[in-house]
Amino acid sequence: MAHGEQSQRIRQRFVEKYLEPARRNRRREFSVRVGDLMKDMEEVGLLRKGLQHQVCTAIQKKAFLRENNLEANIEAPPTAPSGKSTTVTVHYRFHSPQADSTESAQEKADRLLKPFIGAMKKEIAARGGTEGYIRWVRGYDEDSE
Question: What is the pTM of this model?
Answer without folding.
Answer: 0.62
